[in-house]
Amino acid sequence: METYTLGYKFRIYPNKTQIKLIHRTLGCARFTYNHFLAVRRDEWKANHKSVTYGETSRMLTDLKKREETAWLKEIDSMALQEALKDLDRAYQNFFKLHTGYPRFKSKHAHQQSYRTRNQGNGIRIEGKRIKLPKIGFVKIKQSREWDGRVLNATVSCTASGKYFISLCVEMEKEFLLHGNEGGQIGLDVGLKFFYSDSNGKDVANPTPLRKLERKLRREQRRLSRKMPRSRNREKARIRVARVHERITNIRKDFLHQHSTELIRQNRFIAVEHLNIKGMLKNHRLAKAISDVSWGEFFRQLSYKSELYGAKLHKIDTFYPSSQTCSVCGYQNPLTKNLAVREWTCPQCGSQHKRDHNAAKNILARALAEEASTI
Ligand SMILES: [Zn+2]
After folding, report:
1. Where exactly are the structural domains of the chain?
2. Residues of the chain with pLDDT under 50
3. Is 295 helix (H, G, I), strand (E, B) or coil?
């Protein structure tokens, strides 16, 4: 049976004892990571020898037997193993992908997290609580139901002191295929609207964001005026973090709501392959682009399309979608100017709204590309 893994993130509400336990686990996972980073680094410096994951794992067992580090025994052992795996991955990436040399983890990092694996049903949801190894049953705000097996769980604590759990769940693909209404649609992302579609609909950006962004700037200014290391500074820092979280949440809800709707209604979705990184270099556009997060939107459309049996097709960036008449194919150079919102085709007389015309072209182009590959 073909399986599929999906990530779910829920807020959890640990009690005081559980909070203490979570922070001890965070501390011990960080200790393990940093300790063996030093071991691997020193061994290389002294003897030019690479210490493997297996060796660090055996050394960890020895550490637990020693009196001065016996406290490691009280901690969820999977969390420590996962820290060793993370460290090993950081080294692999360093050697293979030439990313930077692994760095020590700081306890002052903005977000702290540890990952643990599900062994013998040690992680499971019962009613409104989730069982976590060594932590016990923690209250969870669960907004979705699923039928699957939890592979691993990441417990995280945000800068404003909220706790979350991200679960990696394995499911059988058959259960995931939901109904799909079978439409076809082209999307043109823009600066005026989040996107315009080939059916003539415009979807605006979420409006509360502007207001919250002003609030964020205000709180950041306040924070910068506080005395370093004062209580008031800490309070101001938490206020800034809260506004950040609200902005992120509103944006996320907006993206999920629209990507799900599109995927439910359409079996074929056409978009332009955006070179978002290239566009971000243009500062005038940068703010708007990071606001609307098209990259994340396309990512969601892509993974949801698998779940709903739909197809997301990205067309070539250099196709002049906004300059071509979607009725007769005439290419109108005047529409290169972004200020031209509406135009009449000089060849066939069709009247076009810029973005809807572009969306129709994107759909037609994608269907043609799709047909030529079969
Ligand atoms: Zn025309």
Report:
1. 3-174, 183-373
2. none
3. helix
